[in-house]
Design a protein that fits this description.
251 residues, 13 strands, flat, five-stranded antiparallel beta sheet
Length: 251
């Protein structure tokens, strides 16, 4: 009888870790992003702008990064939210959740805040984050370049190519290509982003800083792409992430 009980306990213990390791993710916390206003005015047509709110969610030990953004509401009176899980080794989107509270019903009960949306979808969000082995990061800080890693120093360079357009058409955007290159004292140079804008073109692209993974030598470089607003200024800033390893391959 005792042997049977011990065998049963052993089976339960073997099964237990898989469930005990599941994390229920709390609402993420926003970090402040600052656009260099002087650089923006110097390298675009200028005008007021708003940038979407940015919330780091967590990291995995194999190069994944999860974050949440609140896109700017342009005269809709709506709440927008987007949860992203990306692979920083190749910048591919592994999973994405897009949300809009826009509804024709006068008394719509659709979530209109981060808290309400996260509460309504906590089980789904936690499931996808756990599936990708994301570990939550409650405290995050956007750091300025250069990156200091061990005995290495890594700097960044953003180059922008503009499409030749008339002065009148510049208000619709003219950035045709943006490239980000990292230079390491020890490992040379590496292009970590090469984005071509074939359709909608930004007015401005800028590097805002980076987040460093607490789990491995990897960073998420944060860029902003500012586009013309729906009816002109205030223009709208969208966040873009480019990953880079701090080892000799940068990936």
């Amino acid at each position: 009888m005792i042997n049977c009980v011990l065998s049963l306990i052993a089976v339960v213990l073997m099964a237990w870790p898989a469930n005990s390791q599941e994390t229920t993710f709390k609402n993420p916390v926003a970090v402040k992003l600052t656009v260099n206003r002087s650089d923006y005015n110097r390298n675009s047509i200028g005008g007021n702008f708003e940038v979407e709110n940015f919330y780091p969610v967590g990291w995995s030990k194999d190069g994944k990064f999860a974050y949440y953004v609140e896109p700017v509401d342009e005269a809709c009176g709506c709440y927008f939210g987007k949860l992203m899980i990306v692979d920083l080794k190749n910048d591919t989107v592994l999973w994405q959740f897009d949300y809009s509270s826009e509804d024709d019903a006068e008394n719509s009960k659709k979530p209109k805040t981060l808290t309400a949306l996260w509460t309504a979808n906590r089980k789904l969000f936690s499931s996808k984050l756990n599936e990708n082995k994301i570990e939550p990061q409650r405290i995050a800080r956007v750091l300025p370049f250069p990156i200091i890693y061990k005995t290495d120093r890594v700097t960044t360079n953003l180059s922008v190519e503009r499409k030749t357009v008339s002065k009148e058409d510049r208000i619709y955007g003219d950035v045709a290509r943006a490239r980000v290159e990292l230079t390491s004292r020890q490992n040379g140079k590496k292009t970590v982003l090469d984005e071509k804008y074939s359709e909608a073109m930004p007015l401005y692209v800028g590097v805002l800083g980076y987040l460093k993974s607490p789990l491995e030598p990897r960073v998420a470089i944060i860029l902003v792409e500012i586009y013309r607003g729906y009816e002109g200024p205030p223009n709208v800033g969208n966040i873009t992430i480019a990953g880079a390893s701090l080892d000799k391959n940068f990936r």
